[in-house]
Specification:
The protein is mainly beta. It has a single domain, classed as Beta Barrel (Maltoporin, Chain A). It contains 12 helices and 48 strands. It has a 22-stranded antiparallel β-barrel. Strands 1-3-4-2 form a 4-stranded mixed β-sheet. Strands 31-32-36-35 form a 4-stranded mixed β-sheet, with helices on one face. The termini are far apart. This is TonB-dependent receptor. Keywords: Cell outer membrane, Membrane, Receptor, Signal, TonB box, Transmembrane, Transmembrane beta strand, Transport. Belongs to the TonB-dependent receptor family.
Length: about 1000
């Protein structure tokens, strides 16, 4: 039986079951309703209470739980949901709620201000986005009050830093597929920020802090106000927030960590050629104090008879210290070293430590909600949200040139001794590498995201079928402007022209190229530590560097209805249904030098035409391109909770069914569905749950409409190298990713023999097919040769005229993912008054165990890679968060432990020291494949010194635990901020005021 047939059978059985129970309910309408006293508390979730220290919540008529669209009393959802209350978030005392939520074990792979600091063009710099299960932010749906929020970049990912955080009263984290309830992108789950819509009074929060290294100074100011008018019919709330985290600046070149962080030791891999691994020794070796031998800080001759000559102050030559006892061979290689690293020696040119550990980030947020009760049953409301997030960072100092420069021996900046050595060795030029340590400024990137979001809606309730039904409807327009401006970035061709200098007849020095000279070329001396003149710097790195300007818009219209259809002998049947229309669009523009500039006609005063430049891609990094695109979505869903059992001996059970039909303007129709069940057994406090679902992620704007880029390249085709035109574009033929989620769980919820204890254990199994991924040109050619007709359609090879050959590089639905694991959550609350002691004690723990995370790229010659336990990634085998709190009416203390298990650099490595097998591309050998984990301890406390004011403190990472070394093959970074704390011990103090 096929998967499709199986799914259809399941849905038919579910619908048949629903119809049967409707018939039973209709036949038994005379049955007395279940007494309210028998219902479960409405605030019940499927996980232990987030704030067990709080008094029991008042039971309301309906409660909306984020794992479902159904709002009902006594309904326990099958999809696990972890809840963080306002008190939980306050105890964490983070300047940005994103950081508190990202610590949850199920959140893996989130991006923040410590990630992507080595990137100029990733598009996620300074973006606070949440990722569940390591599936990436694009597969986690982040909502505000159950509503979508306009994306902060072209992948559609939201920026939590733009949310009104002081008014958040709880955050629901749904750790399971929720596409049938909420739509596209909820493959990993949903994170829903719930605000206090009827807040009254005034509250404020002021806090500040810094690290133990006296950097990353931060401050936060927040205020919120709310009041009811017109006999409690008009409700107005407003909040403003300002936060600044100043970041951790780059120390520049060399093996030096910022402000005394001595843990940075230039970690890297030494990688021997595959052909040399038949000697029984491993191919990979982890090293520290790695030294590139292809460049030095101020310049190094890297080939020929003068190899090993470096240049220092005022261009004076000296013998370079390679480390490892390395001796240059004159061929570009160095004995005792493995390309491209030696160990030790002159480490001054290393740029790995030049990346900011944390970005300088500023948040400015304003929010208001105005609600008017037309009558006691119906409200209309308006919300406006403005959020501006600015960040700044340095991805690396200088602009390293790895032995890829050619310096002519007649260059007038060369010392006389080197010119003479050229003549003596009968050479006219040599290869050269430099980190360009003499540059007056380091590259600095300035992303700014500004959101403007307006929502007009209505909600209320009305009688239907003799019961109370509720509705909510809204229209939304969200616009996000993203500007990325890069300063002190060099233009490659101008740099090349400027360093190729000659001496003219009048004794002056000029650029060798007459064309470049006529266009304003100013020569530059890269031989040693010689200051760069202002005129030279203005030519090589003009004031107006790479720029990208994006306007992204989201329009939404949504209507949802839910209520109790009628009661059966087993309990009420609850329904939810709704429809939504959504339109997503974007327009992005890059600067002319990056996107494309004419060489003969001026087109921009800031970026004048220059014959030296290429048609596009002129910057050292940050070549942004123009693009635009739009798509729309229409969808409708139905969800039902059907009680199927109510017995004194067997307990209570219910089914939860959902089905959603979605039509994308680009890819057509797709269906998502959910079938879940919960059973509150007859055993005291024991509940079982299970859910299976089909979830979807539609291709985003970037994947559909990626900016076109055309470059020349070469591929291997039918045994010959073929010159091609490589055309990189979006793919409007992409289909949605389809996921199958399965969750099985057991819950022990406050049994009578342990009334303060709750625990849950949930096993999850997620398969994602048709994963959208981008291949390189050679991989596409290989797949075409292997018989993939879809990919063959995007290329033309073997033409008689070689210039007609092309390969279109774009995204395809080729990859797949499979992950399995389980979540454990437990909490215990103890009131100490039973022992004549003050206060309450709360113990809580959350743990995620990743059993497997297989990714199959679909590329010829590869095998599925295992990501679970790969600590260079973001899915460790174990991730945990535990806390112990003591609370009184006046004081509180909270101790928190965060930990990740040790792992491997890669699960594909074969670890061996001697008698190693011959390495392969798929399974390389490595000397030591162990990467240590981390254990962090945090301490926080509060003192309520008046009825309205509370002082607090927080110390994160008390032990100042260093991050594990994360070796790379290019020494570009050396740490993994996706898993490890790279900032160090942090102190924060503050005050909260609530009137």
């Amino acid at each position: 039986m096929t998967t499709q047939t199986t799914r259809n059978t399941i849905m038919r059985l579910a619908v048949a079951s629903a119809c049967s129970w409707l018939a039973v309910a209709h036949a038994q309408q005379a049955t007395p309703p279940t007494p309210a006293a028998d219902a479960q508390p409405a605030a019940q979730t499927d996980t232990p209470p987030a704030s067990p220290t709080e008094p029991e919540a008042k039971v309301e008529n309906v409660v909306t739980v984020s794992g479902s669209r159904i709002a009902a009393r006594g309904f326990s959802q099958p999809t696990p949901t972890t809840v963080l209350s306002a008190e939980d978030l306050a105890k964490n005392a983070k300047p940005n709620l994103f950081n508190a939520i990202a610590e949850l074990p199920a959140l893996q792979g989130s991006t923040g201000r410590t990630t992507s600091t080595n990137s100029t063009s990733s598009g996620i710099q300074g973006l606070s986005s949440l990722s569940l299960r390591g599936l990436g932010p694009i597969r986690t749906l982040t909502l505000l009050d159950g509503q979508r929020v306009v994306g902060a970049n072209v992948t559609g990912v939201t920026d939590v830093s733009q949310f009104p955080q002081l008014l958040v009263k709880r955050v629901d984290v749904v750790t399971g597929g929720a596409s049938a309830s909420y739509g596209s992108d909820a493959i990993g789950g949903v994170v829903n920020f719930i605000t206090d819509k009827k807040f009254e009074g005034f509250k404020a929060n002021v806090e500040g802090g810094q690290t133990t290294y006296h950097d990353d100074k931060n401050g936060t100011l927040q205020a919120a106000w709310g009041k009811a008018f017109l006999d409690d019919r008009l409700h107005v709330t407003a909040s403003v927030e300002y936060g600044r985290e100043k970041g951790i600046d780059s120390p520049g070149f060399g093996e030096v960590g910022p402000n005394g962080r001595s843990w940075y030791k230039n970690p890297a891999y030494q990688v021997r050629p595959l052909s040399a691994t038949n000697d029984g020794k491993p191919q990979y070796t982890f090293i520290e104090h790695a030294q590139q031998y292809q460049y030095a800080k101020y310049g190094l001759i890297t080939n020929g008879p003068l190899q090993g000559t470096a240049f220092g102050v005022n261009g004076q030559p000296y013998k370079f210290n390679y480390g490892s006892g390395g001796v240059p061979t004159g061929t570009g290689a160095v004995t005792g070293c493995v390309n491209p690293f030696c160990v030790g020696g002159d480490l001054s040119g290393s740029v790995g430590a030049g990346t900011n550990l944390a970005m300088d980030l500023t948040r400015q947020v304003a929010y208001t909600r105005v609600g008017f009760d037309i009558n006691p049953d119906h409200e209309i409301y308006f919300t406006a949200n403005f959020g501006k997030v600015k960040s700044e960072f340095t991805p690396n100092p200088g602009a390293a040139k790895n032995a890829n420069l050619t310096v002519q021996c007649d260059n007038p900046y060369l010392p006389a001794s080197i010119a003479a050595a050229c003549a003596a060795n009968n050479i006219t030029s040599f290869q050269y590498g430099t980190a360009n340590g003499q540059f007056p400024e380091s590259i600095n990137v300035h992303p700014t995201r500004e959101m403007r979001r307006l929502v007009l809606g209505a909600d209320g309730h009305f009688p239907l079928f003799g019961n109370d039904w509720s509705y909510d409807a809204y229209v939304e327009r969200g616009i996000n402007f993203t500007d990325i401006i890069v300063h002190d970035m060099t233009l490659n061709n101008r740099y090349t022209a400027a360093i190729d200098a000659v001496r003219l007849a009048d004794g002056s020095i000029a650029c060798r190229s007459l064309t470049a000279r006529a266009a304003g070329c100013v020569p530059m001396n890269i031989i040693g530590n010689v200051p760069v003149s202002a005129a030279t710097w203005a030519y090589v790195a003009p004031e107006y560097g790479p720029q990208q300007h994006t306007r992204q818009q989201q329009d939404v219209g949504s209507f949802n209805l839910n209520g109790e259809a009628f009661k059966t002998w087993a309990g009420p049947i609850n329904w939810a249904t709704g429809a939504e229309w959504r339109r997503e669009s974007y327009r992005v523009g890059g600067d002319p030098y990056g996107n494309g500039v004419s060489t003969d006609t001026p087109n921009d005063a800031k970026y004048p035409a220059d014959p030296v430049l290429n048609p596009m891609n002129n910057w050292y990094a940050g070549n942004y391109h123009n693009a635009s695109g739009t798509y729309n979505v229409r969808e409708a869903y139905v969800e039902a909770n059907l009680p199927v059992l109510k017995s004194d001996g067997w307990g209570e059970a219910s089914l939860n069914l959902a089905d959603r039909h979605t039509h994308y303007s680009t890819s057509g129709h797709v269906e998502s569905w959910k079938l879940g069940a919960t059973w509150k057994t007859g055993i005291d406090g024991l509940r079982l749950r299970a859910v299976t679902s089909q979830d979807v992620r539609a291709p985003n704007l970037s994947e559909l409409y990626a900016a076109p880029v055309v470059v020349n390249a070469a591929v291997l085709y039918q045994g010959a190298n073929v010159t091609i035109q490589q055309r990189t574009v979006g793919n409007t033929a992409l289909r949605p990713e389809i996921a199958r989620n399965k969750i099985f769980g057991i819950v022990l919820d406050r049994p009578s023999w342990a009334p303060g204890f709750s625990a849950s254990l949930d096993y999850f199994d997620i398969k994602v097919g048709g994963v959208i991924s981008t291949l390189n040109a050679q991989q596409e050619v290989d797949l075409c040769v292997a018989g993939n007709k879809e990919i063959c359609n995007v290329m033309s090879l073997g033409n008689a005229v070689q210039t007609n050959n092309y390969v279109t590089v774009q995204s395809f639905n080729l990859a797949s993912m499979r992950l399995k694991g389980y979540d454990l959550e437990a909490a215990y609350r103890l009131n100490l008054k039973d022992w004549n002691l003050p206060g309450r004690v709360t113990l809580r723990g959350l743990v995620t165990r990743n059993i497997t995370f297989l990714t199959d790229s679909g590329v010829v010659g590869t095998i599925p890679s295992e990501g679970a336990g790969n600590n260079l990634g973001n899915t460790p085998r174990w991730k945990g968060l535990t806390s112990q709190s003591w609370d009184t009416d006046k004081y509180s203390l909270t101790l928190t432990e965060r930990w990740i298990s040790s792992g491997k650099y890669s699960n594909e490595f074969i670890e061996c020291q001697t008698n190693c097998p011959v390495s392969t591309v798929i399974h390389p050998t490595i000397y030591d494949n162990h990467m240590k984990g981390a254990f962090y301890v945090d301490l926080g406390g509060t003192w309520k010194f008046s009825d309205k004011a509370t002082a607090f403190f927080k110390v994160d990472n008390i032990g100042n635990v260093d991050p594990a070394a994360a070796p790379q093959t290019n020494l570009s970074y050396g740490i993994n901020p996706a898993l490890y704390d790279v900032v160090g011990r942090v102190y924060r103090v503050g005050m909260r005021y609530n009137f």
